[in-house]
Amino acid sequence: MGMSTASPKKVVVFDYGFGNVRSAERALARVGADVEITRDYEKAMNADGLLVPGVGAFSACMRGLKEARGDWIIGRRLSGGRPVMGICVGMQILFARGVEHGVETEGLDEWPGSVEPLNAPVVPHMGWNTVEAADGSELFAGLDADARFYFVHSYAVRDWTLEIGNPTLAAPKVTWATHGEPFVAAVENGALWATQFHPEKSGDAGAQLLTNWIGTL
């Protein structure tokens, strides 16, 4: 059966007040997904893929996510092996905690680790950067090693400590980037994928990456 005859994958961009939902919607639609921006519980639960964007403060994002029951939706989807992808702060909140101005906020704790201020001469890390893709990465399939992605962030996960993760998810593949110091740029972990950079603002490379994600849904 050719691609053209298959119905497009249904992707919900989760609208909880903290993300560039319009640019994410446009980028996904451009690569052939059937996209809806919503916080509707049933739609978010039943979509082929759930995209969780995030901008701003970790603590504000977590609060907004919980108010929209996003924490519950993400947990339920993952326990059923249903794909979820986090972008920028939408990736950061998947970790155990965020530390901003000395204040610690609990994250979703899908992965251990802390989101902390980047140690770099210039912060925020803003602009294009290359990544060191994980071996066997599906997310970066078909992309050259010198492909560049668009980053805007002051905080990052600087240590990856996961030995044995959630037993229902495949072993994580971790992609790194460097700005002043190495930090986690992307993670692929069974049904849960995430990027610190913005694929929706990363031109052709970002489009390829979103195409790769949709291909797994």
Lateral strand order in the biggest sheet: 2-1-3-4-13-12-11
Query: What pattern of helices and strands is seen along the backbone?
Result: EHEHEHHEHEEEEEEEEEH
Give the CATH class: Alpha Beta
Radius of gyration: 16 Å
Shape: globular
Mean pLDDT: 94
Profile the largest sheet: 7 strands, mixed
The low-pLDDT segments are none
Number of domains: 1
CATH homologous superfamily designation: Class I glutamine amidotransferase (GATase) domain
Q: Which structural class do the helices and strands define?
A: alpha/beta
Total beta strands: 13
Question: Count of DSSP helices?
Answer: 6
Q: What's the CATH topology name? A: Rossmann fold
Query: From the coordinates shown, what is the CATH architecture?
Result: 3-Layer(aba) Sandwich
Give the percentage of residues in beta strands: 25-35%
- Terminal CA distance reads 17 Å
Percentage of residues in helical conformation: 10-25%
Write structural notes for this entry.
This protein has 217 residues and is an alpha/beta fold. It has a single domain (3-215), classed as Rossmann fold, CATH 3.40.50.880. 24% of the residues lie in helices and 32% in strands. It has 6 helices and 13 strands. It has helices at residues 21-30, 41-46, 58-67, 70-79, 89-92, 203-215; strands spanning 10-14, 34-38, 49-52, 84-87, 95-100, 103-106, 111-117, 125-130, 148-153, 155-157, 173-179, 181-189, 192-195. Strands 2-1-3-4-13-12-11 form a 7-stranded mixed β-sheet, sandwiched between helices. A 4-stranded mixed β-sheet has the order 6-5-7-10, covered by helices on one side. A two-stranded antiparallel sheet has the order 8-9. The two termini are 17 Å apart.
